[in-house]
Write a structure and sequence with these properties.
The chain is mainly beta. It is 7% helix and 55% strand.
């Protein structure tokens, strides 16, 4: 039978730092000692009725923190694969405020914060694009430009649990290179009786309201309602859930643009011929510009889930899953910025104070004159729609044979409207400021001599000659996945209990369109010979101020961007090369055939279970996009490739003692490249070579995506020891090794075939159809190795005085290497995989008794290097520094009397207001590389209080 969608008769099985590190070590020691001393318990059945039971966690019968841990551990223990699992504390109640935050507490997983919230998940140090995500076993379309799922799109109130597969399974479709996250919704026939649950929480953020008049405050709410019932003698089940999120984000941002040594023997003036900067001491490291911005954002999400389940007898079982959500996000991002580099005419310093630093002292205070200050106001609206439908039918013929058919559709649609305008002193007049900055990380203090909130002197203008007065963009994206799957199952014999033989066909198509317009003030020109950068116009619709007092500047002007844009500006379409490249289609047709044999035998006296199988994956990928020559549109182009990969897998779980297991996994896995790497969008043209060996020849050159890109391939080995005891306690040690047989990186090919391209310069005839082309390519791979420690311990196992207390902890240590050829040409390139945090840890203490529940949790992620596009569209790497976040939860559930079923909950996320900090890696004029602060952003703490009611 299908292990991802068990039939009704098996659905009752549980399915298919330093101080933190010290606490973890103590936990593992205590649990290991207790595990050895614990009295023997009844051994579990040698083989669960559903060997791949991680796909469906138990229905929520008992509730609370300990019950959630207990259900998750049962799923982990009974699975044939190496997995991690989370389970809801109750209907409509995951243990955290979001799915991503719950997942991030699992061993080997780390979260990436977006708008201050856990949104994307990295598994074992690989970026989110390497992880597969499914909903009820079905691959999901994404709103992002790539494959990584934004978990904020899935309301935690509608998810009953999740399983994270760390080792592949031949019957798992859509799995990733690093692992696969399978989210699941509740099954109504798993519950013994009808249930109704409602949840209402208010929330507030400690950063207050930063953009007055935008309509975004510091308060919001979350609400959900779930209804589950059974009909026709418990053969027909219905589950309906609705969840709404109306949440504010108030973010304080600071960015140091770049750093340089302006003057002196090691300065840009003497080494690079840059202008001398008056007043700046020789051989002093100075910040060359800054950006201080305040973001106010409102997120409104509505999600609706419906499950219809029918099991009229022991032979037939049908499930219809429907999910629909809308996500509407409005963002107001306003701030001040200026450039203070030696290349800016008129910049001078005075009274400069320096602090000790290496390799040069750092300018941390003083006065700057000659600044062309830019006030930029941004408005962004994003509207997303997700729809997912799946219909699963299973039939058990009663003679050992069973047949499963699954039909699914997933759609993600995104519309983005973005606009921004500039303001400042008209006529390109300059301003001055006193500055006080930290040598490391903190908000600076700037005290300008101009009141940037005074609309009598601040006007719409282009203060620093950016070449236009504003910009507007419209983006549209649509991602669809259509899939059909068939599987047969039958008992086998010998060392195998049964086998699964199946086929799956999916057709994925992602379209993206971007249209860009430049805005020009009425009365100003829009061409090089008519445009006046100092042209100014009064701000006609001010609506308040933006508060930048946390950076010393104080209030700046705030206005309605769209109203001003449509009343005081005119637009011209101005797509550039980078804009044209975001108009493309990528399509992937993927038939998969697989066979899996489920193992149930003994090795001597040791019970052994698991599975072995193989997937054969055929991929037909193609792309259609635009060809440009610089910013000029030339025409359309298409290309693609077909390839086949064979992916074997083996999972073994040996019962080596009472509730003690040794697991082994070995598999070959693949992950297709980023979707924007597979697009055929290119900029290409011919030119006459003026010098060098090819002087006098007309040669092609270009850059772009690679629709012939092959996938990442890795061979992984896993070994895990696990010991379970008590009702919700365990300890585990796991090691893994993953060899990347290839890796995708940018490379310049000198013999690229341009025969499919259009030459837009008829006066030049190419000497050859071959030339140089820079694109993503497949190269030799690297290696990842890791250690994972995890455990959960009930205090009552030590002494009755600690009954109700408990602790959860995990720690992972991961190392990776890349071949030098993959990244050596990129400034600041790492020797490890981008996105890899070497250390990830979680620690949580909880108490649950007499209706009270308390939980304090902290998660830690060490620094990692992420690929980024820096200023002036230069590819570089940004180092994201270590991140530690602490959350608190306090609740009380009424267990007796007329208020039975009612509970209250207080949650505080990001208790310490942990900032996000990044570091830029750049070269000084003497070619010495340094790391200096780039970004410092805070989001405040979020406090939520509300009630839950279950009937």
């Amino acid at each position: 039978m299908n292990r991802c969608h068990p039939t009704r008769k098996v659905s009752a099985r549980v399915p298919c730092l330093r101080p933190l590190a010290a606490s973890l070590a103590a936990l593992l020691l205590a649990t290991a000692i207790h595990a050895q001393e614990a009295p023997p318990e009844a051994a579990p059945p040698k083989k669960p009725a559903n060997p791949d039971s991680a796909s469906n966690l138990d229905a929520v019968v008992v509730t609370g923190i300990q019950a959630s841990i207990q259900n998750s551990l049962k799923a982990k223990e009974n699975s044939d694969n190496i997995i991690e699992a989370i389970s809801a504390e109750d209907i409509g109640k995951l243990p955290d405020s979001s799915i991503a935050e719950s997942l991030a507490r699992l061993s080997g997983l780390a979260t990436q914060r977006v708008d201050g919230r856990a949104n994307q998940i990295s598994i074992r140090g690989l970026a989110p694009d390497f992880a597969g995500t499914t909903l009820n076993g079905r691959e999901q379309a994404t709103i992002g430009e790539n494959r990584g799922v934004d978990f904020d799109q899935y309301p935690s109130e509608l998810i009953s649990g999740a399983a994270v597969y760390k080792t592949p399974d031949a019957s798992l479709i859509g799995q990733g290179l690093s692992g696969t996250v399978d989210l699941h919704t509740i099954r109504p026939l798993d519950l013994a009786k009808p249930a109704i649950a409602a949840n209402l929480r208010g929330e507030t953020t400690s950063n207050g309201s930063l953009n007055h008049g935008s309509g975004v405050g510091d308060a919001g709410h979350r609400a959900s309602f779930s209804y589950i019932d059974q009909f026709l003698d418990h053969t027909l089940g219905l589950a309906v859930g609705f969840a709404q999120l109306d949440s504010p984000v108030q973010e304080k941002q600071y960015q140091a643009w770049w750093w340089n040594v302006n003057n002196g023997p090691n300065g840009a003036d003497q080494i690079q011929g840059a202008p001398h900067t008056p007043g700046m001491p020789d051989d002093t490291l100075a910040q060359q510009g800054m950006q201080l911005r305040a973001k106010s954002e409102n997120q409104l999400r509505n999600g609706l889930m419906t499950v219809l389940e029918w099991a009229p007898d022991d032979h037939y079982h049908s499930t219809l899953d429907l999910y629909y959500s809308t996500f509407d996000q409005k963002t107001y991002l306003n701030g001040a910025q200026w450039s203070s580099s030696s290349y800016d005419p008129g910049i001078s310093f005075s009274n400069v104070g320096v602090s000790p630093g290496q390799p040069f002292p750092i300018a941390t205070s003083g006065h700057i004159d000659g600044l062309k200050s830019v006030l930029q106001n941004d408005y962004t609206r994003e509207h997303d729609k997700l729809f997912s439908a799946g219909w699963n039918n299973q039939y058990d013929f009663g003679n050992g044979w069973s047949l499963t058919g699954d039909l699914s559709y997933s759609m993600a649609k995104k519309r983005l409207h973005d606009a921004y305008l500039f303001a400042g002193l008209p006529g390109q007049a300059t301003s001055s400021t006193d500055f006080f900055t930290r040598r490391d990380y903190e908000f600076p203090r700037f005290y300008p001599g101009t009141d940037f909130s005074d609309t009598s002197i601040i006007q719409f203008t282009d203060p620093n000659n950016y070449g236009y007065d504003g910009r507007e963009e419209f983006d549209k994206q649509r991602d669809t996945i259509k899939a059909v799957r068939f599987e047969v199952s039958h008992p086998v014999g010998w060392i195998f209990s049964d086998f699964n033989l199946g086929v799956n066909y999916s057709d994925r198509k992602k379209n993206k369109q971007a249209d860009v317009f430049f805005a020009w003030l009425n009365g100003n020109g829009s061409t090089d010979d008519t445009y006046l950068p100092g042209f100014g116009a009064p701000i006609g619709s001010p609506r308040g101020i933006t508060d930048l007092s946390y950076g010393g500047i104080g209030p700046i002007v705030n206005y309605d961007v769209l109203q001003s844009l449509y009343s005081q500006y005119y637009l011209t379409q101005r797509n550039g090369q980078s804009d044209w490249s975001r108009n493309y289609t990528v399509r992937e047709k993927v038939p998969v055939a697989y066979v899996k044999f489920n193992i149930d035998t003994t090795l001597g006296d040791v019970p052994l279970r698991g599975n072995m199988g193989v997937q054969v994956v055929r991929t037909d990928q193609s792309s259609e996009a635009l060809q440009t020559n610089g910013d000029a549109l030339v025409g359309r182009i298409s290309d693609g490739v077909k390839y086949t990969k064979v992916l074997p897998s083996l999972n073994l779980a040996a019962t080596i003692g009472d509730k003690q297991y040794l697991r082994f996994g070995f598999a070959k896995t693949m992950a297709r490249g980023r979707i924007d790497d597979e697009k055929v969008a290119t900029s290409a043209g011919v030119s006459l070579q003026q010098d060098g060996p090819a002087a006098g020849q007309v040669l092609w050159s270009g850059s772009g995506g690679n629709p012939r890109l092959k996938p990442y391939i890795a061979v992984g080995t896993d070994l895990s020891w696990e010991k379970y005891f008590g009702t919700s306690s365990y300890v585990a040690v796991a090691v893994f090794n993953k060899n990347l047989l290839n890796y995708i990186y940018n490379e310049t090919t000198l013999d690229y075939d341009f025969s499919k391209y259009v030459n837009d310069n008829p006066t030049l005839v190419p000497t050859s159809p071959y030339g140089s082309f820079t694109m993503p390519k497949n190269g030799t791979g690297g290696r990842m190795q890791g250690l994972e420690l995890s455990g959960t311990f009930e205090g009552g196992l030590l002494t009755r005085a600690l009954d109700g207390f408990g602790v959860q902890a995990n720690f992972s240590l991961t190392n990776s290497t890349l071949p030098v050829s993959a990244v050596s040409t990129i400034p600041g390139s790492p020797s490890t995989l981008p996105g890899l945090s070497r250390k990830v840890a979680n620690l949580a203490f909880y108490y649950e008794k007499y209706g009270w529940s308390v939980r304090v949790a902290e998660r830690y992620r060490s620094s990692f290097t992420g690929e980024a596009v820096a200023l002036f569209d230069q590819l570089g790497y940004t180092k994201v520094l270590a991140d530690k976040q602490t959350d608190f939860q306090l609740g009380y559930a009424f267990e007796h009397g007329p208020m039975t079923g009612l509970s209250i909950l207080l949650q505080v996320n990001n208790v310490t207001n942990s900032p996000v900090k990044t570091e830029q890696i750049s070269s000084l004029p003497n070619n010495e590389k340094i790391g200096r602060p780039l970004e410092y952003d805070t989001f405040g703490r979020t406090v939520m209080f509300g009630v839950n009611y279950k009937l």
